Every structure is written in C-alpha cells, then in structure tokens.
Amino acid sequence: MQLRPTRKVRTALFPEMKVVAAYLLAVLGGNTCPSADDLKNILGSVGAETDDDRIELLLSQLKDKDITEVIAAGREKLASVPAGGGAVAVAAPASAGGAAAPAATETKKEEKVEEKEESDDDMGFSLFD
Fold this sequence. Notes:
By secondary structure, the chain is an all-alpha fold. The chain has helices spanning about 15-30, 35-45, 50-60, 65-80, 85-95, 100-120. The chain folds into two domains: about 15-80, Arc Repressor Mutant, subunit A (Orthogonal Bundle); about 85-120. It is globular.
C-alpha cells in the first residue's frame, strides 16, 4: 500500500533537483540506467509534478556515464571552491609546510572557549525544567 501526500511537493528554488533526486533514488534502488518512465514513476509516487524537458535533459547528460564517477568529479570541483575563512586556513598549511600547524591548534582552543561562554548565557535555566 502506497501513501500519497495530501499536497503537491514543491521545489521552488531548485526545481531541477527533484529530477536529480529521483535519478539517484532509482540508482540506489539498483537501476543503473533509469529511464524517463522510471523517474516519472518515482516523482509521481510522492505527488511531485514531472517536467519532461528536465528529465530528458538530465538523461541526455548522464547517458553512458557512471553516476559514481560523475559524483566524484563534482566533489573534486567543489573542493576547489572557496568556502569562506575555513578554506584559507586549510590552504595555508599546505603551502607553508608545518609552520602553520600551531595556528590550527590555536583556532581549536578558541572554539572551545567560545562554546564555554555560550553555555553560560542560559544562566542555569532550561526550557525543560
């Protein structure tokens, strides 16, 4: 027995992600080469609208490719994207050798101090007492 949601699933910000998610679910289920009908069945089972153009685009881009290799290539590309202050601190030890290692331990100590200060903010009261 399949349960159907009472309202439509919405992906307003990234509508193409539901197609990618359906593809990955099909692969996780053991279907190494899902068809458009397979993706439509998965999307329909949760009440999501299907967009034939997006499905065909995804299937054409992934044709004859191994999904694990595609994911690995994506991870490599994401590793080179700067992600704020943390990425700079990680890159510095690689170029400076072992000299930057103490700086990393100092930041860990600072984080521990901040956590301790945050716990003092509740003044001993709890929402569940």
